[in-house]
Amino acid sequence: MPISGFPEWLPPQRMIEQFVLDKIRSTFELYGFAPLETRAVEPVETLLSKGETSKEIYLLRRLQEESATSDDQLGLHFDLTVPFARFVVENNGKLQFPFRRYQIQKVWRGERPQEGRYREFLQADIDVVNRDTLPFHFDTEMPLVIGDVFRSLPIPQAIIQVNNRKVCEGFYRGLGLPDTAQVLRTVDKLDKIGPDKVAAALVETAGATDAQAAACLKLAEISASDGSFVDRVRALGVTDPLLDEGLSELLQVVETAAEHAPGLVVAELKIARGLDYYTGTVYETQLRGYERFGSVCSGGRYETLASVGNTRFPGVGISIGVSRLLGILFGQNALTVSRSVPTCVVVAVPSEDKRSGCDRIATALRRRGIPTEVAPTAAKFGKQIQFADRRGIPYVWFPGSPDTVKDIRSGEQVEASAADWTPPAADLQPVVSAG
Amino acid sequence: MPISGFPEWLPPQRMIEQFVLDKIRSTFELYGFAPLETRAVEPVETLLSKGETSKEIYLLRRLQEESATSDDQLGLHFDLTVPFARFVVENNGKLQFPFRRYQIQKVWRGERPQEGRYREFLQADIDVVNRDTLPFHFDTEMPLVIGDVFRSLPIPQAIIQVNNRKVCEGFYRGLGLPDTAQVLRTVDKLDKIGPDKVAAALVETAGATDAQAAACLKLAEISASDGSFVDRVRALGVTDPLLDEGLSELLQVVETAAEHAPGLVVAELKIARGLDYYTGTVYETQLRGYERFGSVCSGGRYETLASVGNTRFPGVGISIGVSRLLGILFGQNALTVSRSVPTCVVVAVPSEDKRSGCDRIATALRRRGIPTEVAPTAAKFGKQIQFADRRGIPYVWFPGSPDTVKDIRSGEQVEASAADWTPPAADLQPVVSAG
Lengths: 435, 435
Hints:
Chains A, B: Its EC number is 6.1.1.21. Chains A, B: Keywords: Aminoacyl-tRNA synthetase, ATP-binding, Cytoplasm, Ligase, Nucleotide-binding, Protein biosynthesis. Two copies of one chain form a homodimer. By secondary structure, the first copy, chain A, is α+β, with helices and mostly antiparallel strands. Chain A folds into two domains: 11-337, BirA Bifunctional Protein, domain 2; 345-434, Anticodon-binding domain (Rossmann fold, 3-Layer(aba) Sandwich), CATH 3.40.50. Chain A contains 14 helices and 19 strands. The first copy, chain A, has helices at 11-30, 44-48, 81-91, 137-151, 165-175, 180-187, 190-205, 210-221, 229-234, 241-260, 322-331, 355-367, 381-391, 425-428; strands at 34-35, 41-43, 58-62, 74-76, 99-108, 120-129, 158-164, 223-224, 265-268, 281-287, 297-308, 311-321, 335-337, 345-347, 372-374, 395-398, 404-407, 413-415, 432-434. In chain A, the strands form four sheets. In chain A, strands 1-5-6-12-11-10-7-9-8 form a nine-stranded mixed beta sheet. The longest helix of chain A has 20 residues, at 11-30. The first copy, chain A, is elongated. At the A-B interface, helix 1, strand 1, strand 3, strand 4 and helix 3 of A face helix 1, strand 1, strand 3, strand 4 and helix 3 of B. Strand 3 (58-62) of chain A pairs antiparallel with strand 3 of chain B.
């Protein structure tokens, strides 16, 4: 029986997922990110060090455990950032910094099933981490990598919304609201509860006047795909050194993206991100036409990803929600694959006593990189063609003197030798496409 | 802190692991196996349906679970066969049979840490499953796939040891020992306790006479890389229809392998496999020179992998213990990789104000598939070359008029344009090799 929150794809969907993962991985590698895979479990104290998500952890115990204390308590990781931070601390003497890594793994969250959320899902993360300080230009690189990933896929255009915590915090402080965390949390509810309720909450819980609340909302309204957001923020009349720093950083992200990938990045000053370890740049990503499904790729800068004694490890990273992305696209039938198996050619078997000759043909084709199956039984050729057709396999090979190969889509059948016949490049692998 | 039994590789080792996984996957796909990934968890009843491994299961509970019964009990899968069988039953109406799938995933076993075994490890499985009956020729295909996988890797030669339960059971029955399961279990201890203790145990627990025990040991001694094992079994003077069937099947496996992959397969009549669902062919695999580490790839035929009502789903499959294989080879420093990052070129940064020009060079190289990083800081060129050297990155690019690119291994530096310079194919990706 299916278990709520634990999605499973049929093989054609898994083929699409692998195609997506291959594109993600090859793009990450083009940017020089090294692969990392961490264990699925962490000590529960490590997981609980991010208090906010403590309610969502799956703990492990052995079925025949003698007593509750016989094992250190282990839990499944709920993201890839906490294990990465732990890995960096544990192996900092063996790593070269700045350390660029990607990590593509399942994560688990013990959500209540009735919320209809995934409890097991796949994430693809990149992070750059350094000792002591990390130059800001790495913050400008993250959207470019993600832009390249999304452009390599047959899916709607991705728009990366960027903000900077320093802009918000500097603005609130400059405005005379010292509890910037509370203001940020409240403004973060804008899309859920609307501006009137946010304004009221700012007055009630953050000690804002009506004018201050209105200014916070004005800031959150600002959105621009170029550097014009800077003047619009300035026009609100608030000054603060942290605000200046934030505006300068955000401008760098927007301008770098405008040069390398026009249309990819928008400065969106209402973006806050729930998790509280971000300290500067924050990213969210929407697909055009799929905005209602929320962000499919998020991240940001953390001044202290990890620390060892007096050494701090700042980082910046971004995470593609692969299961979330595919769940949305599969739900809209927005991705298809040309066949349900990798097989390009089925070798027909004229009779069981000829099977070893058919195996030799298959071996010759495979040696030249052509995915090949031999028909499971020496049924009538009509049945064997049907075997291929039902799976979307384009070619059936008929052993004979000479051999022939048939494109079962067009019906065209030609003489061929397993030593040199090659299908058109487009037929070699299954093709993933939109709609 | 490392957790006993949960191995983690550093990035260079993970690059080797990915290289191995890519070879495994592409070989599986050349044979037409379709990809499948199942969820990490199963209901505990599903896991316990294979009684033998019940003690090794990790159960899950949510940290803030209200009561022990609020969730159906879930456990992490301990192999990929049980989830595959469940998936086939659940989706049998949506699958095309015979269904060939591969599955490469982590599995978990709650072993006691002091046993020094892996508690999390990676397996790569192929299985073919059909409705009602599955032709025997699929049993002859499994070793060929695995042989191709191992030949594509820079590792010692793999020898697949094959046996057939029908040979053993038919022989024991024909010999007059009706409790064939007990005989099999006892003979399976041969490598651990030696022939004398096995003979004694056969007399004690399986009701064998000394002569019968001796005959069982004689059978277990037979080993051959060709069909000669048939005559040697016949020479022991036992007859039984099941024995005939088993010998004929085993002969097919050995002869098919001898034709397609000489030296790959050995009929080894002492191989039994612990798990009790195998009903015919069984496989184990050793690496030459690494025999003492045991099998790195095992499997067999199961007449009833799954069933739905009156419909049986027989299958045959084999599983590569990827973590086990790599753990052994890493432990002997038997695999190396030419660099610790995917990066082929580092673009040097003459000064921070020239960074955007360096980014443009990197973009041009990446668009042509060349993994490229831009240096993290505009340090002295000596430092930037050191950055590349420490990671094994072969090329450093110097922006200028004209640009130049330096092979830092040879010191050779040539004029180059990012629009058309291409490294030698051998330098494009990290190279994995033996020793």
